[in-house]
Predict the structure.
Amino acid sequence: MNEDEILANVYSDFLIMINKYAQQNVEPIVIAAVLMAQALSLYKTSLSEEDYNSMIDKILESKELIPTFKSESNGGMLH
């Protein structure tokens, strides 16, 4: 499997998990908080301090570019 396929598989697996919790009426903000905390910990563990700080800066700089998920009321899943 190449990196794009791995990324697509991991993304799909996490989306299934997120939707499972959403269907159990777990608040999206709770799901997001857990994912964000784990993501930041992975970045901090895997990157140098300089690269970690650069990643955080890039996230903040691109905050307006992040799309919202469709709601179930619009015919889509939480994503």
Summary: The radius of gyration is 15 Å. The chain has three helices and no strands.
